[in-house]
Amino acid sequence: MSFDNRVSEQQPTLEQLDGWCEQALSSALPEIRSEAERRLRYFFPTFSETLAEVSESHGFSSGQARVMAVFPSIKGPAESAKLMTWFLHQSSKVFSITYVVNRLRTLVLNHLNVMEDEQKADLRVSLLAAIRDKFTELPGFLIDDLTRTLALVVMFTWFDLPDSKGVIDSILEMGSTSDEHEVLALQMMRSFVEEFNKELPPKYISKQRRVVVTFRDKQLKSIFEHALRAMRSAIGDGGGGRDKRVVLSQALLVQRDCLGFDFIWLAPDEASDEAVAIQIPSGWKDLIQVEGFLDAYFEGYAHCGPPLSSQFVEVLVLVASIRRSFYMEAVRIGFVKRMSAGIAEILAGAMGLDDVENYHHICRLLARFRCIHTLVEIEDTPVYRTLLVAAAGFTITGLGLWEWSSNSIAPLLTFWAKVAAAHDGRDSSNSEICGDVIAATLPRVVGEHLRSMVQATARVASGESLADNPLDNTDALLENMALAANIARASYEACGTTVLTMMRDMAGEYQALLNGGQASAEAVATCEAQLVWPVYAVAQCIGARQPYRSQAEDDQADAEMFAVALELDHVVRQRLQRGVGGDPSEALELAFLHLHHSFRATYIGEQGYKAAAVYTKLTELVGLRDSNHVLGLVLDKLLFNLRTWPPASPVVHRSLQLFHDLSVGYVSVRQVAKLDSVKVLLTGHSGEGFRFLGAIDEYKPRALYYAGLARILFSASDVTPAVFAEFMRPWGLLIDELLAMPDAQLAMDHVRPGLIRVLRDLRGFLSAVSSKSNYTMFFDWIRTSQRMSLVHRCVEMQADVKVQIAALKFMAEFVFNRTQRLNFDVASPNGILIFREASRAMWAYGSRVLKERSVAVRDVYKDRYKGVAACFTILARLVAGKYVGIGVMPLYGDTALERAYSVSVELLKQFPVPDVIAYPKLGKATTSLLEVLLAKPNIDLVPLDDAAYEHVMRVCVEAFDHAETAVSSSACGVIDGVLTAAIENEGSDVAKLVRARSADITTYLLRAMLNIVLFEDRPNDWSFSRPLFCLILLDTQFALQYTSQIVQYQPPERREDLIKALKELLSSTEFVLTTTNRDRFTQALTQYRREVAAKNLILMVPTSQTLGAPVDIMAYSIAATASAISPDEGEAAMAD
Q1: What is the pLDDT of residues 875-908, one digit of tens each?
Q2: How far apart are CA 1019 and CA 638, in angstroms?
Q3: In whole angstroms, what separates CA 797 from the centre of its chain?
Q4: How many of the other CB atoms lie within 10 Å of CB of 290?
Q5: For residue 37, how far is the Cα from the chain centroid?
Q6: How far apart are CA 1021 and CA 690, in angstroms?
Q7: Neighbours of 740 (CB within 10 A)
Q8: HEC string of 431-469?
């Protein structure tokens, strides 16, 4: 065992520690930061450092985990915590306290449970004392960090120390001393609530949940009650003076955090800010269901200015979100009435609404209140009408304030969308429950929202407003328009007329502007930017159609709006064709595409619902008789965009995506295939009219286009070779022309882009070919006239790496057995022919890379590794496809297999192992290839020598830390395949390699995997368990010895449980290679994970001061411990 004694064993001065902390956190030089961190780790170990942090692994022979050196007086976590708290009390430097608090938090999180109860209590007292002593001189964030660490100690000792629960009470009592201490107490309670509400890593969840349930039911209520008293006291004192205002602010923040507590452990990604009700416990009724509870908040809002007033409303938002079932019916009626009256009073008097925070939270209050409470309790009372009238006036005004508070638009629309959802505009009985107010308001809300957005867009376009352009945030635009559409659908006759009228009026103004002949480009651009809003409104209204609620007159309204939008689109297209008015509007074109998408999704195809009324009206207005005519119109629009817009424009990408959507639907693709324009497109798909086809910078647009064409072409079940040949004819002519060129001409600058385009086009087309018969037609076509030779000439071209990559990626798609499309008949030679073609391409590219490996390149990934990764993908797909009997190829002298394997192994040996992590795509391709090649059926065919074997194992170990879990799982699969082959066939070459390197490689792999399984928490334990079983089988003695030494360095409090868990793991099965034994070991490893998680058995990294008594895991019993390994032998084993 080796130690790092480069740090002095004398205790450093306070100045030295302060200096190192400042260097570790603020130095711009990595070397200085690293050195300072190393020194501080020596004096303040957390015992949670990973083995990688204390190891210097440079090879199999010296890559063992070294024992971490620590200060001699530190024998375990308790001593380290004591030294940290001493430093915490002594130092006044912000850097020092920041550093030591973070270290202390890590230590508490992982190793508090190994301390004695007295040591835990001392740590808790010391932390609380540090907060009390330093709260006047430290910044707020450090007080928060210290309190959070204290909260962790309290959480983890909740059931161990009876007085831990009393810490919260003592903090609350401290608040009665003075206003200054009240502020501190409230600030600490905020930190406690946030820390208890924070989800810890999975291994702590079980314990945390048990504690939090008790905290939620008792202490959280006490904290909320204390904050209520502090708020009422401050309000009673008039809220004057700086200290009272600070107390009031902190009290409101504590209430906010208490009400925002996750009472039912709902995952954050499952919660919606505006829709989830707060599941407050019933035990809180005596605090909330009291007379005048809401009065304090409304009075505080009325009498306190910003920012306190906005905090009052923020708490009201949460109070309004409390679940309806929390209240008994009578109490709920009173609550809803008081909340409605209070909101109406604020809105009617515009109280405090000149402050943007107040205004925004009032908007949120409206939305949240209506989302949780249906208000049926007060529908027949005057307060309901008062609320709706006040909300209507407030909304109409607020919708025009987009530039002032843009985030408040969505809550206002949400309120009216909820109101509209319960309103039926056709039911006259609604007038008895304020239906008249709702019916009159909904069209105003929809119209005002559109008008305000139109005006805001014009102001931004003209430079009058400095706000961001609302058209730039497409997600928010679509979200708000979806809410407006839901509002409109509730009263479609009135709201639809509003949208239609606005669309017609604005379209008429646009037409007049163009007909005037004097319109400037700026005026046209502004007008088209404004037209975006009504077009999106029409699109969202059509998309919001609900078949079970929609009637014939609604479908006719959709048809009218759609027809007006089509006429506007026609006018815009005519302007572009005439070349007047400047550049086209990208936002308007995207809106038109969204309109076509919405109409198709609603009325055409798989998700469409047949509605005769819409087509009857469309026939009358624009002559569109059925869905086929509409699809033809949509396709013409898409083709026009592809011909006119620049390749990089979002319009092209959205058009191609819509074209792709049309081609993937079972019904829509057959409808599209019957269109005359599509039939013409299939015969002239590579025409120069499509500007995006002339670009070579991006592959995805071309892939979408040709994949869509392939689906349309093959949508008919009886595609004849003649039809297929006609489609392929443009490519065939181009390839034949390129093949006729000599190599020198083929490498010219004006020719190479054409090569890249045709290779990418064929690749995109082939990616959509899914059946064997269709693939066979493509295979026969490309082998005709030796067209595949173009691919080989491109691979051999040295002038342009892009051409080589395009050729290799086409080859990777060509050999891909996607949906079993390459499963040829038994007598077919096609599989072998494909393998030969791929092997030839790999050999040509790989040989050149190996020949020029010493030549420096500008970008090693683009110029070298990208092609290597493509070669690895080709071979992996060839072998994994299982459509070639590769085992028989050497028997009849076919060198394709040998060349493919040998060049791949040589390429693998050439790149440095760390590049597997540095270039994720290379790492993924490498491990995927190795997993296939070194699997049981193929490993005997791979030319694996000692150097290659060592390099493969290095790559696998490096891949354990890859960012993608799938890569580390593949690396485990590689090791498992090699070791399984060696064990099952002891006379094989692989077995000889494994035995020859068992002293270094096998031992290193076993140590590395044991370290991962014991010290780390990985999501793919199953993958690690398979090779670990083989490694233990190969060297059971070392596995027992190493795990025993790991236990020997753990604190005594953990050893018994840890030994028991390890003993059950290692004795769970017989280490003989059978499927049953493997599965048992995997199950045992899963059980071991559960055991250590339940008991919080987090292992400590071995240190120079923590070596304990020796232990033999397999011979261990509770009554006595058999001493099988001496301390000297233990150190030697750790150093091996």
Answers
A1: 999 999 999 988 888 888 889 999 999 999 999 9
A2: 45
A3: 40
A4: 11
A5: 32
A6: 51
A7: 9
A8: HHHCHHHHHHHHHHHHHHHHHHHHHHHHHHHHCCCCCCC
Exposure string for 309-332, b = 16+ CB within 10 A, e = fewer: bbbbbbbbbbbbbbeeebbeeeeb
Cβ atoms of 280 and 263 within 8 Å: the answer is: yes
Q: Report how far residue 495's alpha carbon sits from residue 491's, in angstroms, rounded to the nearest whole number.
A: 6
Q: What are the strands, taking DSSP E only, across 819-879?
A: none
Give the confidence band of 429 by pLDDT, cuts at 50, 70, 90: low
Give the burial string for 226-245 (b: 16+ CB within 10 Å, else e): bbbebbeebbeeebeeeebb
What whole-number distance in Å separates Cα of residue 99 and Cα of residue 276? Answer: 38
User: How large is the angle between the packed helices 179-197 and 220-236, nearest 10 degrees?
Assistant: 150
- Per-residue pLDDT tens over the stretch 323-370: 999 999 889 999 999 999 999 999 999 999 999 999 999 999 999 999
Q: What are the tens digits of pLDDT across the range 60-84?
A: 654 444 678 888 888 889 999 999 9
**Can you count the helices (H) and strands (E) in the chain?**
51, 0
Report the alpha-carbon distance of residue 711 to residue 730 in Å, rounded: 18
pLDDT tens per residue across span 498-536? 999 999 999 999 999 988 877 788 999 999 999 999 999
Structure tokens at 162: 């009876």
Per-residue CA distances from 517 to 66, 524, 580 (Å): 83, 11, 9
C-alpha to C-alpha distance for 705 and 297, rounded to whole angstroms = 59
User: 202-214 and 140-156 are packed helices; what angle lies between their axes, rounded to 10 degrees?
Assistant: 90
Token representation of residue 1071: 């280490």
Q: What is the pLDDT of residues 440-485, one digit of tens each?
A: 999 999 999 999 999 999 999 888 888 888 999 999 999 999 999 9
- Give the 3-state secondary structure of residue 1099: coil
As beta bridge partners, residue 322 has: 278
Helix, strand, coil share (%) of the chain residues, nearest 5: 70, 0, 30
What 8-state DSSP symbol labels residue 114? G
CB count within 10 Å of CB 434 equals 21
Q: Exposure of 13 by Cβ count < 10 A (0-12 exposed, 13-18 middle, 19+ buried)? A: exposed
Q: What would the mean pLDDT of 175-182 be, rounded to a whole number?
A: 87
- Give CA separation, 279 vs 258, 259, 414, in Å: 12, 9, 22
Predicted local distance difference test score (pLDDT) of residue 432 = 55
What pLDDT was estimated at residue 857? 85
pLDDT, residue 1135, reads 39
Cα(940)–Cα(633) distance, integer angstroms: 60
Rounded (10°) angle between helices 77-90 and 94-111: 160
pLDDT tens-digit readout, 193-217: 999 998 888 778 877 888 998 898 8
CB 841 within 8 A of CB 807: yes
Average pLDDT, the chain: 88
Most distant CA atoms of the chain, gap in Å: 102
**CA-CA-CA-CA torsion sign (1076, 1080, 1083, 1089):** negative
Three-state SS string over 534-572 comes to HHHHHHHHHHCCCCCCCCHHHHHHHHHHHHHHHHHHHHH
Pick from 155, 304, 171, 328: which is nearest to 239 by CA?
Answer: 304
| Cβ-based neighbours of 751, under 8 Å, separated by 6 or more | 738, 741, 745
Task: Please tell me whether the peptide bond between 912 and the residue prior to it is cis, using omega within 30 degrees of 0.
Answer: no
- Check pLDDT > 50 for residue 1062: yes
Residue 124 sits at the vertex; the CA angle it makes with 122 and 129, to the nearest 5 degrees, is 95
326-334: long-range contacts, CB 8 A cutoff, minimum separation 24: 326/280, 326/282, 326/285, 326/288, 327/289, 328/289, 329/377, 331/289, 332/373, 332/377, 333/377, 333/378
57 by DSSP, 3-state: which? coil
Rounded to the nearest 10 degrees, the angle between the axes of helix 721-739 and helix 788-796 is: 30
